[in-house]
């Protein structure tokens, strides 16, 4: 049976011992290009034969872990219930096979990985794998009853062998195995472990486990210990985290635990954040933070970090228990800066980010994250809902002031230089009914501004706490917060918001790449001339042209014609918006849509398409088919027109209208005169149009194609 392409690529990578870090972008896309690849990977792992060695099995786990993590990320926006159901059915059916036809080691690893990433696995599957792949723990429990000292001694030896010397390390060590243990088995394991000096920390962390059987059992073992055992508590902050994030059944024990902690343990000194860097790793309104924590006792530095995604909280985080050299850390951040834009910030920004993230927390916190939070000041980890007023006040912004809101509307276009702009486009989720830039702007962005208000506030927060010098192109926090307040205003729908015009434009352009024109006639059977009318939208006085062209010419040729007849200078990108979709005219695009004939979209008088030039200034044109000629047209020709083409890079139609008003005003200030001089508009004739001049340009730039 032929394997799906993703499964075949995965199998070949494992067979050739190719680490996941060494595969090309194309290979990665082939192996993990869609959520469905997660499903096709499971049979590969379950069927890996005994001819595959341990290293190849470990490679499979690496690849599968990446696929599962990508599926988890995908689940934040999409329903993956069907995919998870199929995965469970595959596991169930595979476990009906005998040992010669299923790799039980990898079956266990698949389940551990899914459980770790909070992907559902049926209890019956877990029980079946436990029964088939490992010795029953009940045998050990019987042995424990006979010689508990010996079993405990063996456990300690195993912990020492793997370097387990902290509560966090123990939780990391057993997290996968706990999936396959019953509550009684967990009780036996934790009871044996409770003699270790770090057991209080381990049990507190485990009492925050998302699985109730683990959390409740850890709490039970903790209650069975003598109160004096609490003198070995390393972090009192674990108790604060239980108060905030623990199961209700565990919180009932909190008062007694706090009393023992106060009586017997010492309050540990707070770790200090000495370095903090932020970056924008990907889309989805996310930021990555990475920093150094200094242990006040040992003076060791530890790397910690995470990803805060708006609306979801901390979606990824980590804490490196191994000390790191500060020089080495500096080198690491320098290398990271070459791959993504990194901003060094004052550590106090973390207080606002974490409180906000934890209030929006959707995903369960893992031991690494909990330990990291426990090392930080308590007030940094207290969940607090988003408040634009509070964050604005923190950043010394005047708040909801009429002048600030007006400035936010006017200056929003300046924000295109913020790195977050790349995460605000919606190419993959544009409603098909939103077929114009205006509709996308109004129906998506302006009707649902909440995510962008938060994103702007987060960007303003980073700008305020940044330790780096701003550039002339960097938007100030004043503009950023002003735009956020403008979006919060009830009358936002009645005012222009240039940033959202830009975002709508970019979204539709990107959609053309995701969903290029895939249908329509590839050639015209009987080429004929057509009369087209093109108008620059919202122009006053109207800027328009009427011209004749062949319906068999491709859209890329129509683009060249429009540049010539309107007066543009081929300095920016452009695209067509057609009934088939968006036709991207980027020179680096591999889409074939640009070579579809014009007649594929314009067939009957009255048919219209749009042409957008310069996605910054957003020159939006409407093209209408006025007439079908009986004869073909071998040379495009303009027959009428009106209005001068606006100067390139003058700022768009509204800015052009402002320049027209300036050109008629007298006297002018020095600044106003300088602006007109910049665009050569000193003696501007807005109605100027020379048909002969335009046709001569057409002949030079678009020569006859048809004989």
UniProtKB/TrEMBL annotation:
Transmembrane segments: none annotated. PANTHER family: LEXA REPRESSOR-RELATED, TNPR PROTEIN. This is Uncharacterized protein. Residues 103-263 form the DUF7400 domain. It comes from Salinivibrio costicola subsp. alcaliphilus. It holds the Pfam family PRiA4_ORF3. Residues 530-692 form the Plasmid pRiA4b Orf3-like domain. SUPFAM superfamilies: MM3350-like (SSF159941). It comes from the Bacteria.
């Amino acid at each position: 049976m032929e394997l799906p392409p993703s499964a075949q690529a995965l199998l070949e990578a494992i067979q050739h011992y190719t680490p996941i870090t060494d595969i090309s972008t194309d290979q990665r896309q082939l192996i993990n290009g869609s959520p469905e690849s997660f499903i096709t990977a499971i049979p590969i792992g379950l069927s890996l034969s005994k001819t595959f060695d341990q290293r190849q099995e470990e490679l499979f786990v690496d690849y599968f872990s990446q696929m599962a993590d990508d599926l988890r990320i995908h689940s934040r926006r999409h329903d993956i219930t069907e995919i998870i159901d199929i995965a469970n059915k595959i596991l169930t059916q595979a476990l009906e096979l005998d040992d010669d036809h299923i790799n039980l080691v990898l079956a266990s690893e698949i389940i551990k990985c899914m459980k770790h990433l909070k992907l559902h696995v049926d209890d019956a599957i877990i029980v079946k794998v436990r029964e088939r792949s490992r010795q029953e723990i009940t045998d050990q429990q019987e042995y424990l009853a006979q010689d508990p000292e010996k079993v405990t001694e063996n456990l300690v030896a195993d912990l020492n062998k793997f370097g387990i010397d902290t509560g966090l390390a123990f939780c990391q060590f057993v997290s996968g195995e706990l999936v396959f243990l019953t509550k009684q088995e967990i009780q036996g394991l934790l009871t044996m472990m409770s003699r270790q000096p770090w057991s209080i920390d381990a049990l507190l962390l485990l009492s925050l486990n998302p699985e109730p059987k683990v959390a409740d059992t850890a709490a039970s073992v903790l209650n069975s210990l003598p109160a004096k055992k609490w003198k070995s508590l390393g972090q009192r902050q674990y108790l604060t985290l239980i108060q905030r994030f623990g199961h209700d059944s565990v919180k009932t024990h909190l008062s007694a635990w706090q009393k023992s902690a106060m009586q017997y343990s010492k309050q540990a000194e707070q770790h200090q954040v000495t370095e903090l860097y932020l970056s924008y790793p990907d889309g989805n309104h996310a930021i990555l933070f990475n920093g150094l924590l200094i242990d006040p006792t040992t003076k060791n530095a530890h790397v910690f970090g995470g990803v805060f995604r708006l609306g979801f909280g901390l979606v990824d985080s980590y804490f490196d228990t191994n000390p790191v050299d500060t020089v080495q850390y500096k080198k690491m951040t320098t290398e990271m800066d070459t791959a993504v834009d990194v901003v060094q910030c004052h550590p106090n920004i973390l207080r606002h980010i974490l409180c906000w993230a934890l209030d929006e927390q959707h995903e369960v916190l893992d031991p690494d994250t909990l330990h990291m939070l426990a090392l930080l000041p308590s007030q940094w980890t207290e969940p607090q809902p988003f408040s634009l007023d509070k964050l604005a006040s923190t950043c010394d912004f005047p708040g909801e002031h009429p002048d600030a809101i007006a400035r936010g509307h006017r200056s929003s276009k300046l924000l295109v230089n913020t790195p977050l702009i790349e995460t605000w486009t919606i190419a993959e989720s544009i409603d098909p009914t939103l077929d114009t830039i205006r509709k996308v702007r109004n129906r998506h962005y302006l009707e649902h501004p909440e995510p962008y208000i938060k994103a702007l506030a987060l960007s303003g927060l980073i700008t305020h706490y940044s330790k780096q010098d701003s550039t002339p192109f960097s938007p100030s926090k004043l503009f950023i917060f002003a735009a956020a307040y403008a979006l919060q205003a009830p009358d936002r729908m009645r005012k222009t918001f240039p940033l959202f015009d830009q975002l709508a434009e970019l979204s539709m352009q990107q959609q053309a790449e995701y969903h290029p024109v895939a249908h329509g006639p590839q050639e015209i059977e009987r080429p004929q001339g057509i009369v087209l009318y093109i108008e620059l939208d919202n122009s006053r006085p109207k800027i328009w042209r009427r011209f004749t062209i062949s319906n068999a010419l491709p859209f890329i040729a129509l683009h060249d014609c429009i540049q010539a007849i309107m007066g543009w200078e081929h300095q920016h990108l452009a695209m067509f918006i057609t009934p088939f979709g968006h036709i991207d005219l980027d020179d680096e695009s591999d889409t074939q849509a640009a070579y579809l004939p014009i007649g594929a979209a314009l067939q009957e008088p009255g048919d219209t398409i749009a042409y957008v030039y310069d996605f910054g200034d957003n020159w939006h044109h409407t093209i209408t088919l006025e007439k079908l000629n009986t004869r073909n047209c071998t040379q495009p020709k303009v027959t009428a027109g009106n209005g001068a083409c606006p100067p390139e890079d003058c700022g768009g139609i509204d800015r052009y209208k402002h320049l027209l008003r300036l050109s008629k005003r007298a006297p002018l200030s020095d600044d106003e005169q300088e602006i007109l001089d910049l665009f050569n508009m000193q003696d501007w004739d807005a109605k100027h149009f020379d048909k002969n001049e335009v046709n001569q340009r057409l002949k030079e730039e678009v020569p006859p194609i048809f004989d």
